[in-house]
């Protein structure tokens, strides 16, 4: 049976090789490990086409955007020369447009322009393009580490991708907020589970500044999302120190508590295969009884071996939820500290 893996945040992503992993080491010897869940909010650059909906007109159903060549995954940035920052911007620009709309959009990193003739809705006379768009995402994931010296945090261990195009979500802005796990959908073979959370306080705890194949990174403002690990510094392991055998993960699968669970590292992969560096198997009977293994929302859970931070959980095998993958922490750190160097230069 073919084994398939999925990412563990609430948005599915794909693998993109990490250029940052080739950078020289620029991070500290110790960081604070977390394992606490957090709410993730991202605003896209422009609006992303997620589907089409026929416009019911007096002449019948029409799909102007699709008929003009617009595709799912396209990112619309301008309407008639005006910048589109939200779904409301997009809808408002179409409603007030002339007989033809000039839409500028990005497809696979290439900017294109298309003219679309809006359809007139029979119900209310409004102009519509017959397209469904979104301007952001929200979900739950896990904080991996925090560097108290720089304020930098890293989470997820993989990027947040657009479900339509499969590409990294182009982010205009993003933040993280506190979360509490309120329920669990247990994982079963062929049916991945998930953590379900509540966000009791929408106050921003940190800003997300980069969404990359190695995770999401930014600067922390409020340490509540670290859970009870506010001051626990942990040494960082180089990938050459990682070995098969027993290890632990820190995860927040009950309420507001971060707990330690036993796992087995069963196989190691090439350092440059970002996101799939480590294959793990959950062996902890408590976690297996509670979640069935690895579930969505645990993405970013720190992996600890011999008292050192070696990586983070990133994927679950769909047909075997007791098994999954992880990323070497040095790949995450390379991405995050490339950001840190850029912010230093900017300041």
Which keywords apply here?
six-stranded antiparallel β-barrel, disordered N terminus, 4 helices, Thrombin, subunit H, mainly beta, six-stranded antiparallel barrel, single chain, Pdz3 Domain, 347 residues, 25 strands
Protein described:
The protein is mainly beta. Strands 20-21-22-25-24-23 form a six-stranded antiparallel β-barrel. Helices cover 11% and strands 46% of the residues. It has helices spanning 64-67, 87-95, 285-291, 329-346; strands at residues 5-7, 30-33, 37-52, 55-57, 60-62, 75-79, 82-83, 101-107, 110-116, 119-120, 127-128, 131-146, 152-155, 171-178, 180-185, 194-198, 206-212, 215-220, 233-235, 245-254, 257-268, 278-282, 302-305, 308-317, 320-328. Strand 8 and strand 9 form a beta hairpin. The N and C termini lie far apart (53 Å).
Strand line-up across the major sheet: 20-21-22-25-24-23
Overall mean pLDDT: 87
Runs with pLDDT <50, length 5+?
A: 1-23
Q: How would you spell out the order of helices and strands?
A: EEEEEHEEHEEEEEEEEEEEEEEEHEEEH
CATH domain class of the largest domain: Mainly Beta
Beta-strand content bin: over 45%
Our count of domains comes out at 2
Shape: elongated
Kindly report how far apart the N and C termini lie: 53 Å
| Fraction of residues in H or I helices | 10-25%
In DSSP terms, counting alpha (H) and pi (I) runs of 4 or more, how many helices?
Answer: 4
